[in-house]
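Thread: sanity check for a docking pose with 2-acetamido-2-deoxy-beta-D-glucopyranose

Original post by kr_44:
Hi all, I'm comparing my docking run against an independent structure prediction. Below are the sequence and the ligand SMILES. Could someone generate the full complex and paste the structure tokens? I mainly care about where the ligand ends up relative to the chain.
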Amino acid sequence: MSDNTRSWFIVLCLLSAYTIPSSSDDKNYAKSLLKFKQSLTNPTMLQNWKEPLVDKLCFRNTPIWTGCLCLNGSFIGLRLEGMGLQGKIDIDSLSELPLFSFSLMHNNFSGPFPSDIKKLGKLRSLYLANNSFSGEIPDNAFSGMKFMKKVVLSHNLFRGKIPMSLMEMPRLVDLQVQDNLFVGRLPDFWQENLTVNFSYNNLEGRIPVKLSNQKASSFIGNINLCGKPLDPCKPKNSALKISFIAAAVGGFALAAFIIILLICRRRAKPLQYVKSVDMEKPSYNNKHETYKNNEHGKLYFVKNDNERFELEELLKASAQVLVSGSFGSSYKAALHSGKSYVVRRFRQMNNLGKEEFYEHMRRLGRLSHPNLLPLVAFYYRKEEKLLISHFVANGSLASHLHGNRSPNHPCLDWPTRLRIIKGVARGLAYLFKELPTLTLPHGHLKSSNVLLDGKYEPLIADYALVPVMNKNHAQQFMVAYKSPESTQNDRVTRKTDVWSLGILILELLTGKFPANYLRQGRGPNADLATWVDSVVREEWTGEVFDKDMNLGRHGDQGQMLRLLKIGMCCCEWNEEKRWGLSEAVERIEELDISDDDDYSSYASEGDLYHSSREMSDEEFSFSRA
Ligand SMILES: *[C@@H]1O[C@H](CO)[C@@H](O)[C@H](O)[C@H]1NC(C)=O
Ligand SMILES: *[C@@H]1O[C@H](CO)[C@@H](O)[C@H](O)[C@H]1NC(C)=O
Ligand SMILES: *[C@@H]1O[C@H](CO)[C@@H](O)[C@H](O)[C@H]1NC(C)=O
Ligand SMILES: *[C@@H]1O[C@H](CO)[C@@H](O)[C@H](O)[C@H]1NC(C)=O
Ligand SMILES: *[C@@H]1O[C@H](CO)[C@@H](O)[C@H](O)[C@H]1NC(C)=O
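Reply from moderator J.T.:
Ran it for you. Here is the predicted complex with 2-acetamido-2-deoxy-beta-D-glucopyranose included:
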């Protein structure tokens, strides 16, 4: 490009004597451009925009200053693409130019939409795609821009409604807003010959008739859009009413059931469980005594396919304390067979009577999914329960995200993280499907309950324990009860686990530990909310991502951004607006390491990726040996 410019300079020098008509305007334009440049933070590619000012910005169709657009010797626009630009966009300076076309695509701009853009009254095309612009675009942002033909805002982080002032552009032929966070219904676009792309937002409702002739790919990735060219809208009304009534009746029945249960329990055993909440330090040396004396102490195996062992054997095995926490402590026990098990020890698990407890555990034992840590056996005593599962080679996701780096803890690259979150989503979806009667199919989803096997496939642990935990204890320690609906309205719903998934996603992407995540106690947990805010509302740049992910490939960053958005939609405070699990899972499944965007140039990098991926798998297995 610079070669090109240089050769034009030479031509220019040869011809300048007699061909260039002088134009005093251009000098003023140059002055304005220089002013505009000053508001940018790193305009390294605009080196030739400098004093002394040029007399002419254009020679025929060729610009003298980088990035100018020229037609027949006249300056007509700016095309400042892929220059790493960021900073403020000084619209006032630009408004002094005859700007017909203006592009800032593929730069690093962030912050709100430049809302005074309507001062550029001559503008026909505006391209802001592939930056990190964020926030809502005011409804009147484009008011009076009646010449506008192309508006390209794709691949940013714009939120809120599609601005209505787009309706005031009679000549609009191309509108691209894909890959943002726009919400709400589509306005009734009326323009002739309009091509649109609304894909990958959170738009909803019926697609306007006028847009029904567009390609389906212009609307995909909006779970709640319907109508031609997508699937027909469901006649929702009656179904909605019925499900509403059903939910109300179900809710009432459930509430009644809980109340009856509570009353019965109160009567039967007053104050039994209001003892000290503190867990003793697990004293491993004493364990043998404790269980030996308990004659009917027998392990109950929930499946037939596992090797059998006695509690004795488990207790004799060489063991190691893994976690000693308030929620429950765990030990690792290596048996003679060579297999290692994890024994989780719970004291505050008396919400159900013995029969019901067995029933619930058998139910958990029947669950089987590649991304669930299976329950192997359990042990029941009134004062204490033990849950036994296999030991998982690579520890928890939390230890990898927040632990010290070592050969045993290599940092997780992006493809691995994506695989992990996909696995978690699948496991969670399975729990939702298999446990339809539980309000909280998981209830305690967090990074330390996502274990990684030898191949770094995730296994979800500690699921579906809410029904058996003492209420008070659950509310103090379980993640679901840190959700906004629990802290504010004292209730949890089927979307509460989605919120935990969202937190997990943000944690996975940023590598930041949710401050005071595990803080004990009830009441407003302002800290976790602040944490989400700090992640979400920070200036949008690549900065938010964990540097350990190896941020080299830009195609990946597009996918990371998408996942970030998914995380945000899952963390939505208002649970009515929050996504359901199926939406979240669907979106997560759409992500891919080879970017499927319209940037085909990244396809070739995909192959490169695969070979490097295999290498790092080898590294992993090496580090395990
Ligand atoms: C540009 O100049 C050419 C020849 O000088 C002329 O034919 C053409 O109409 C001009 N175009 C515009 C848009 O002014
Ligand atoms: C986005 O812009 C960057 C420059 O900041 C560029 O390198 C990259 O190719 C663009 N990515 C896409 C997906 O267009
Ligand atoms: C739409 O396109 C057709 C065919 O290209 C053209 O005849 C018509 O004038 C266009 N309508 C508008 C409003 O631009
Ligand atoms: C719309 O954008 C999406 C995402 O970038 C792309 O996959 C799709 O092909 C586009 N559709 C059209 C009609 O351009
Ligand atoms: C632009 O942003 C990307 C990632 O967001 C970053 O890697 C790059 O260094 C930035 N470029 C400049 C010039 O700041």
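Residues 71-72 surround 2-acetamido-2-deoxy-beta-D-glucopyranose (ligand 1) (CB under 6 Å). Hope that helps with the comparison, let us know if your pose agrees.
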